[in-house]
Specification:
The protein is of the alpha+beta class. It is 27% helix and 35% strand. The strands form 2 sheets. It has a 5-stranded antiparallel β-sheet. It has a 4-stranded antiparallel β-sheet with strand order 7-6-8-9, covered by helices on one side. Strand 1 and strand 2 form a beta hairpin.
Length: 200
């Protein structure tokens, strides 16, 4: 009798061959490696973006100082006063009560105990009620602060930098802020702002 080959129904069409198993394992490994690399790179980029740059907060603080002084003007009842470690003047501030920009006062003062330069903005009502300003910001790790005021000296007939502002009824020609910052990204930072209203 001729030999009749019987088909093995269990072996055909069910399961994977060894080669197919190796190919699938390699593809799963490559896809997993690509996903890991993508997530790892994304996480490193996110950490880099979130990390503050050295000196970034210093530059932002100095820019706000410049903007405050550029909006400075003479105003009855609020004098321009300055020493080596503090400065107060009239400027335009954002009022929480009025929801608009209004006349107010900017006060910069150095706290030697906390090693911080404070910036406080208060609107007109804060100034006359004696209340604290509505916006307070500070710059940390400040080793020393020096404000200087550029003015014309009558006896010598020259422009000089003075350490104190003694004539509150007039504005100086310019104000210079010199900061010595400690820590990483520290150093000496200087910002000089000319007051255009001082010419009038």
């Amino acid at each position: 009798m001729p030999y009749i080959k019987k088909e093995n129904k269990t072996a055909k069409g069910q399961g994977l061959t060894f080669m197919e198993l190796l190919i699938v394992s390699a593809l799963v490994g490559v896809v997993a490696l690509a996903i890991y690399g993508l997530l790892s790179t994304g996480l490193r980029i996110w950490e880099t973006v979130q990390r503050p740059l050295p000196g970034e907060d210093i530059n932002i603080f100095l820019d706000r100082f410049r903007l405050d002084l550029k909006n400075c003007f003479l105003f009855e009842g609020i004098d321009f006063s300055g020493t080596q470690e503090s400065l107060a003047f009239v400027t335009l501030v954002q009022s929480n009560r009025l929801n608009s920009e209004t006349v107010g006062q900017a006060i910069y003062s150095y706290d030697a105990n906390k090693k911080a330069l404070n910036r406080e903005l208060g609107d007109f009502s804060n100034v006359y009620s004696g209340a604290a300003g509505s916006l307070k910001q500070f710059l940390e790790k400040v080793e020393s602060v020096r404000f200087q005021y550029y003015t014309f000296d009558e006896p010598t007939k020259k422009f000089v930098w003075s350490q104190e502002w003694l004539t509150p009824e007039v504005l100086p020609q310019a104000v210079r802020l010199e900061l010595k910052i400690g820590g990483v990204g520290g150093g000496v930072f200087t910002k000089t702002v000319s007051l255009s209203v001082a010419d009038f």
